[in-house]
Amino acid sequence: MKYSIEIFDKYKPQIIIGRSLGTAVASYAASKRDIEKLILITPFDSIENIAKSKYPFLPVKYILKHKFKEIDWIKKVKTHVYVILSEIENIVPKKSVKNILSNIPNLKNFYIIKNSTHGNILQNEDFVNILEKILKH
Predict the structure, then answer these.
(1) What global pTM score does this model have?
(2) HEC secondary structure over the chain
(3) Which domain holds residue 132?
(4) At what angle do helices 94-102 and 47-54 cross, to 10 degrees?
(5) What is Dmax (Cα atoms) for the chain?
(6) φ and ψ at residue 4, rounded to 5 degrees
(7) What pLDDT, on a 0 to 100 scale, did the predictor assign at position 2?
(8) CATH of the domain at 84
């Protein structure tokens, strides 16, 4: 995660956008630096929790080197957070999505892209419209 801070400090963006695994990196950077907006596309609470739900028979706690505990970082973000979700989420369990949403202290708004999955959300025509709307506010 230290590289996200190095990149942030080099470019000093005012808006950070993260998608899927990148939402954890974006949340981490936003928890360490002041920004104008944080936009999370298909976020999750932690890779560890996703792995536990998909592979309950494995000791994932001990297998995973990087647990990407986005839930810990998002609680420290001071700026407005916008979330874009897929209607048919086929990667991140609903429990993980609900958990992250309920732990965002500055959740400004969240959107659900109809007829989209985790993998094709960026290709959905509504995605660009919603992203433009967020960026204008």
Answers:
(1) 0.95
(2) CHHHHHHHHHHCCCEEEEECHHHHHHHHHHHHCCCCEEEEECCCCCHHHHHHHHCCCCCHHHHCCCCCCHHHHHCCCCCEEEEEEEEECCCCCHHHHHHHHHCCCCEEEEEEEEEEECCCHHHCHHHHHHHHHHHHC
(3) 2-136
(4) 160
(5) 46
(6) -65, -35
(7) 80
(8) 3.40.50.1820
Two tokens, residue 108: 């400004």
* C-beta separation of 32 from 86 below 8 A: no
Is it the case that residue 67 has pLDDT exceeding 90? yes
| Residue linked to tokens 């204008």 | 136
How many domains, the chain?
1
- Tokens representing residue 123 in the block: 């290709």
* Other Cβ atoms closer than 10 A to 75: 12
Render pLDDT for 105-130 as a digit per residue (tens, 0 to 9).
Answer: 999 999 999 999 999 999 999 999 99
Which one, of 27, 70, 28, 63, lies nearest residue 47 by Cα? 70
Residue 6: which residues within 8 A CB-CB, separation 6 or more? none
pLDDT value of residue 1: 80
